Amino acid sequence: MPQRYVFEPSAQPNLPIAGSEQFFPVRRIYCVGRNYVAHAHEMGGDPEREPPFFFAKPADAIVPEGGDVAYPPATSSLHFELELVVAIGKGGVDIPVEGALDHVFGYGLGIDLTRRDMQNEAKQMRRPWAMAKGFDQSAPCTALHPAARIGHPDSGRITLAVDGETRQDSDISLMIWKTPEIVSYLSGLVRLEPGDLIMTGTPDGVGPVERGQTMTCTWADIDRLSVRMV
């Protein structure tokens, strides 16, 4: 009997569930751009309450619970962007804001690694950002914390330090678009499904990280993430 696939399929990308032996299978990764006012200002914009916009990373860009991450090729300006991660546990389309949190399984903390030089060039040439955002190991993330255990946090300090020096220090309460609004708006563009992750945008303080440096991230008293560039 012939094999069903011409080669063995890749392993299913996943994230561990904190306090459990189970895993969350990752389907897609959506990312929100410019969702903190201070970060929008440092990037040369002023969105206030403009509609959110999205880009994507491949599911296998996930690096579960951090560790060593390879510095990517074709860049000399790799930037960190610390973000709250929302994990979808129930699918839907055109989800109303008031029911959006019913679709959220849980939360984590992640880093949106960005080839900033490549992104800037793409912006200038009016080309897509895909290779600036969606490269290998570009989405380190903590384990996921179920909402059934921690609730639906709408505030909480998040920090990122490089070799012990704090670079980002903010609070998720400062997001322009809140979690229910993000879930609702995105579900009007695509059908959300269980396994989808949403990286909700980064606060100000983004900057470069070099080979050999370690990023240490914290999320209130919930979790921490450590990533070393190699």
UniProtKB/TrEMBL annotation:
<protein>
    <submittedName>
        <fullName>Fumarylacetoacetate hydrolase family protein</fullName>
    </submittedName>
</protein>
<dbReference type="InterPro" id="IPR036663">
    <property type="entry name" value="Fumarylacetoacetase_C_sf"/>
</dbReference>
<feature type="domain" description="Fumarylacetoacetase-like C-terminal">
    <location>
        <begin position="29"/>
        <end position="223"/>
    </location>
</feature>
<keyword id="KW-0378">Hydrolase</keyword>
<dbReference type="InterPro" id="IPR011234">
    <property type="entry name" value="Fumarylacetoacetase-like_C"/>
</dbReference>
<dbReference type="Pfam" id="PF01557">
    <property type="entry name" value="FAA_hydrolase"/>
</dbReference>
<keyword id="KW-0479">Metal-binding</keyword>
<dbReference type="GO" id="GO:0016787">
    <property type="term" value="F:hydrolase activity"/>
</dbReference>
